[in-house]
Amino acid sequence: MSVLVVGTTALDSIKTPKAENPRLLGGSASHAAVVASYFSPVRLVGAVGGDFPKRYINLYERHGIDLEGLDVIKDGKTFHWSGEYEINMNNRETLHTELGVIETFMPTLPKSYQRSSHVLLANIAPALQLHVLDQVKKPKFVVADTMDLWLNIAMDDVAKLMKRVDMLVLNDSESHQLTETENVVKAIRKIHRMGPRFVIVKRGEYGAVYSGPDGLFITPAYPLQNVVDPTGAGDSFVGGLIGYLASCKGPFHKHLRRAIVHGTVMGSFCCEGFGLKRTADIARERIDQRLKEFDALIRV
Ligand code: AMP
Q1: Which of 107, 149, 198, 295 sits at 20 to 30 Å (Cα–Cα) from 219?
Q2: Residue identifier of the C-alpha nearest atom 12 of ligand 1
Q3: Per-residue pLDDT tens for 30-45?
Q4: How far is the CA of 26 from the centre of ligand 1 (A)?
Q5: Where are the domains of the chain?
Q6: Ligand 1 mean position to 24 CA, how many Å?
Q7: 1 vs 247: CA distance, rounded Å
Q8: Nearest CA to ligand 1 atom 10
Q9: CB atoms within 10 A of CB 195
Q10: Over the stretch 75-117, which tens digit does the pLDDT of each residue have?
Q11: Residue 71: which H helix or E strand, with range?
């Protein structure tokens, strides 16, 4: 089965206390699509400008990602995001967001994409997430991610989106903002009432809390000694989750807990390098080895 991913395909300029890297490959869809491609075939929907380096297109291609849905708008500019991390690497500040070609992007899906079984509406304007979802015929599983910006400026669309997805993934502070509730268990209950049957609240280095009809499930994060750049860890998490789910047979809910473990492990790889430097090049044995290590870490 295949995964359709829509989201930002970006250039990221990232500053950490130790280093600064301009114009790396980034964007919610890039992180998620590359990670999902380790487990399942992936179809990408996005837009880039004429300034998008060919080597980044080559990187998608190396991962076998279907690029029929990637618009290259020669006289436009690629979405550019820049951010700076504080010394603890948990808090970051957005310095600059330039929407570029994303501002007016409302794609018509290629015919071959319309029957995708799994859909990842990665972080991007919720109106665009809805527009893409409208064009997919009877998907088996739909997950959406969002962020504070969209909760601030497009809450009506986020509310519509929540009624149409199986799962919503968001981070701790976004769950507080969305529900005006500090306690994570109460916040999750409120989110279920807004629509999604399955909810995951990501808590950075403290892991994730899942809630569904089968109750709660909690995973820690994989303990890393050296976090180089956490940008895209959340997108890698959800990319790993949906890529793994699309590789499983039978009802998706039976595989969700193992999918969360896959997401957690893939998110940890992302933090080990700037941008997609680590996740673009992981040997399959390294993934399997870390999955095993993680299993041992969480076993009681
Ligand atoms: P994460 O660290 O998981 O929050 O993801 C960071 C990625 O999100 C970066 O690669 C950015 O290019 C991308 N990004 C930043 N701001 C936005 C936005 N407003 N909408 C969509 N993607 C964004």
Answers
A1: 149
A2: 27
A3: 999 999 999 999 999 9
A4: 8
A5: 3-298
A6: 13
A7: 6
A8: 27
A9: 17
A10: 999 999 999 999 989 889 999 999 999 999 999 999 999 999 9
A11: strand 66-73
Q: Which of 48, 82, 147, 149 to mutate to test the pocket of ligand 1 (most atoms within 8 A of CB)?
A: 147
Q: Which atom of ligand 1 is nearest to the CA of 92?
A: 2
Retrieve residue 15's tokens: 């500053």
What is the average pLDDT value for the chain, to the nearest integer? Answer: 97
Which atom of ligand 1 lies closest to the CA of 123? Answer: 21
CA separation, residue 45 to residues 4, 10, 114, 263 (Å): 7, 12, 12, 21
N- to C-terminal Cα distance for the chain? 33
Distance CA 8, CA 29 (A): 5
CA–CA separation, 268 and 205 (whole Å): 9
- CATH classification of 3-298, choosing from 3.40.50.720, 2.60.120.40, 3.30.565.10, 3.40.1190.20? 3.40.1190.20
Burial 159-184, CB ≥16 within 10 A → b, else e: ebbbeebbbbbbbbebbbbbbebeeb
**Ligand 1 centre from 84 Cα, in Å?**
13
Q: Which residues contact 228 (CB under 8 A, 6 or more apart)?
A: 16, 18, 271, 272, 273, 274, 278
